[in-house]
Amino acid sequence: MALLNRPQSLAVRHVSRETPSSWPGLGLAAVGVVVAWTVHRLLPVVPMLTASVVLGIAVAHLPGLRGVVRGIGRPGLSLAGRRLMRIGIVLLGLGLGLDQVFRLGWTTVAMVAGVVAATFFGTLWLGRRLGLPGDQPLLIATGYSICGASAIGAVSQVSGSDEEDVASSVALVTLCGTLAIAVLPLLQGPLGLTDPAFGRWVGASVHDVGQVVATAQSAGPGALGEAVLVKLMRVALLAPLVAAVAFSVRARRQGVRTASGRRPAPVPLFVAGFLAAVALRTTGVLPGVALEWAHTAQELLLAAALFGLGSAVHLPTLARTGGRAAVLGLGAWVVVAGVSYAGVLLTV
Predict the structure, then answer these.
(1) 130 three-state secondary structure
(2) Which helix (H) or strand (E) holds 46?
(3) How far apart are CA 339 and CA 64, in angstroms?
(4) Is residue 165 within 8 Å of 134, Cβ to Cβ?
(5) Deepest of 90, 103, 218, 257, by most Cβ within 10 A of its Cβ?
């Protein structure tokens, strides 16, 4: 019997040696995070998450590194884009307490919900009309309506989206959000917005949290405080949106089971974790030091995940749909900026 079992054990060891290691890619993502953090420290106007995406795209196309990114680094970079993204999204919930949401007032809450719904469904409709491939319309609609690249990553976890669709959507939303940092402050005066009103407009229309901070701080602390509160309200809508997408995917795949023989969970585990983190923050039991450490960990994890997603961008492929994607990005930008501006005027 020992002789019969020996070849099998040797085969198992051989398979394990052939399994690609995730460490080279994770190490590359860690280096990318350090560089992105350094860029943010030297240029505070550039959010670390934005720098991470850009660096990931750059590394994937540098002659000396693209072979590593597409070869031994790919398993770890893909792992960062999936698993680290989920953990970072859970920690994102610790930045949002229900008391902050209630402090906004029901009219502002209704305004934010209206902006999210109009942006999501308007962008989704336009993307499909333009014929964008795969899940790009869904992912771009999510990124514009909720919180940029983080929301795209969350929805892609339950929609099973192709990695290239995720990467190209992240690139587009990051580009438009970065442009907002320069464009929106120039419009405060012509649009007749006070500093608090400008902060609410930024919080309701700019995608990523870091981009919101970079944009609103130009109008002072009053605008920044309003912007962050409104932005956190949009982040709170991430959980129901992801759950709705998961339910829709589950309904389309009725009868399909996972590899373990179980049906997909109606609510993804990381979404439940996000809601649990929000509930924990609301109780007030966590000390400020713990929240600061959690925020730092969230930033680092999301930066590593976005570096991994950025490294999956293939610019020649993106260029083939670049014109349509640019039209969708501009159209979605007009929708979210216009609807949120009208909402701010109605609630001030």
Answers:
(1) coil
(2) none
(3) 45
(4) yes
(5) 90
- On the question of pLDDT at 27 being above 80, the answer is yes
Structure tokens at 277: 């983190």
Angle of helix 288-310 relative to helix 85-92, nearest 10 degrees, comes to: 150
22: which DSSP letter? S
Which residues lie closer than 8 Å to 149 by C-beta, 6 or more apart?
A: 49, 53, 143, 170, 173, 174, 207, 208, 302, 306, 309
The C-alpha R_g of the chain, in whole angstroms, comes to 21
DSSP state string for 285-319: -S-HHHHHHHHHHHHHHHHHHHHHHHTT--HHHHH
How many whole angstroms separate alpha carbon 127 and alpha carbon 212? 25
In whole angstroms, what is the distance from residue 144 CA to residue 201 CA? 14
* Torsion angles phi and psi, residue 265, rounded to 5: -65, 140
Strand, helix or coil at 222?
Answer: helix
Number of Cβ atoms within 10 Å of the Cβ of 34: 11
Q: How far is CA 106 from the centre of its chain?
A: 26
- Which residue type, as a one-letter code, is found at position 159? S
The one-letter amino acid code at 269 reads L
Structure tokens that stand for 158 in this block: 């339950």
If you ran DSSP here, which 8-state letter would residue 43 be given?
-
Cβ atoms within 10 Å, residue 38: 12
Q: How many residues in the chain?
A: 348
Please name the amino acid found at residue 294. A
3-state helix, strand, coil in the chain (%, to 5): 80, 0, 20
Q: What is the pTM of this model?
A: 0.71
Tell me the mean pLDDT in the region 115-143: 91
Which helix (H) or strand (E) element contains residue 209? Answer: helix 209-216
Contact by Cβ (8 Å): 84, 304: yes
pLDDT band of 107, cuts 50, 70, 90: confident
Residue 315 in tokens: 């610019």
Q: Is residue 41 packed enough to be buried (19+ CB in 10 Å), middle (13-18) or exposed (0-12)?
A: exposed
